[in-house]
Amino acid sequence: MDDTGWHWFDGTNPSDETDKDVLRETAEACARVFRSPDGQAVLQHLTALTLGRHLGPNASDATLRHLEGQRQLVGHLIAMIERGGGRTTPEPALHPTPKPRKRKTLWTRIF
After folding, report:
1. Which of 3, 46, 49, 83 has the greatest count of CB atoms below 10 A from its CB?
2. Is the pTM of this model over 0.90?
3. In which region does residue 85 sit, left (phi positive, over 0), alpha (psi from -120 to 50) or beta (all else)?
C-alpha cells in the first residue's frame, strides 16, 4: 500500500523541525526590525490604524471584514515580535478610566 501524501497524519513529517527553525528565525527577524525607534514608530502607526480604529454601526460587511483582516495581520506581527524576544509596549488607553471614588455611606451623607 502506497502511503504517499499521508505523512502528516502520523506526525512524523521530516520538515517539522525545519519549519520550526524558519519560524524561530522569522520571529527573531521581526523582533530585530521592530526594536529600532523607526520600527517602533511604524508598529505604533499600524496599531493606531487597525486596533485603535472603530467603525460605526452603518459600516458595510466588506469594510468590517477588511478591517478585521488588517487587525489580524498587526496582531500576528506583534505575536512574532514577542516570540522573537522583542517587547511591544501595550497600546495606551484611549479613554483612561477615572480613579474610583469612595462611596459615601448613607450615614455620612446625612450628617
Report:
1. 46
2. no
3. left
